[in-house]
Amino acid sequence: AAIGFVSLFGVSVMNGILVITYFNHLIVEGKAPLEAMREAAEQRMRPMLMTAFSACIGLLPAAISTGIGSQVQRPLAVVVVGGMLLGPIMLLVVAPALQVMVMGWSRNESEMTFGNEDKAGK
User: Fold this and answer.
1) What CA–CA distance (Å, rounded) separates 3 from 67?
2) pTM of the model
3) CA atoms of 86 and 90, how far apart (whole Å)
4) 95 Cβ partners below 8 Å, 6+ apart?
5) Cα separations (Å) of 33 from 3, 9, 30, 55, 99?
C-alpha cells in the first residue's frame, strides 16, 4: 500500500504543478485570477481525467480480486484506484478555490502594507 501512496503522490503533484504553472502563465498574460484559474482547470481537466481513469480501469481487476495472491496486490490497487478517483476532484475543485483565496488574501495584505507605508511617509 505504501508503494501505491508514493505513486499516487507523484501523479498528484505532477498534475498540481501543471495546473498552477498554466495558471501562472495566464496571470502573466494579464487575466484576472478567477478567470485564469477557471481556464487552467478547464484546460487540464481532460488529461487529468484520462490519466486517472486509465489507472483506475487498469487496476480495478486487481482491487476487486479475491484469488490466490490477491493479498499482495490488492492493497496497492485499492490505494491507487481510490486515490486516482479522488485526486482529480481535489485538483480541479478544491485546489483552484484555495489558490484563488490565497491570492486574494495576499493581495489584501500587500495593499494594507503599502497603504500603511504611504500614510506613515506623508
Assistant:
1) 21
2) 0.69
3) 6
4) 16, 19
5) 36, 26, 9, 32, 9
Residue 65 carries which DSSP code? -
Determine the length of the chain: 122
**Whether residue 93 has pLDDT greater than 60:** yes
In the numeric block, the cell 498528484 is attached to 12
Copy the grid coordinates of residue 58.
487498469
Residue type, 68: I
| Burial class of residue 39 in the structure, from the number of CB atoms within 10 Å of its CB (0-12 exposed, 13-18 middle, 19+ buried) | middle
Q: What is the mean pLDDT of the chain?
A: 82
**Residue ranges in 65-94 assigned as alpha helix (H):** 70-89
CB atoms within 10 A of CB 83: 20
CA distance 100 to 89: 17
Beta strands, E only, 4-107: none
Q: How far is CA 59 from CA 13, 14, 71, 83, 114, in A?
A: 20, 20, 14, 12, 53
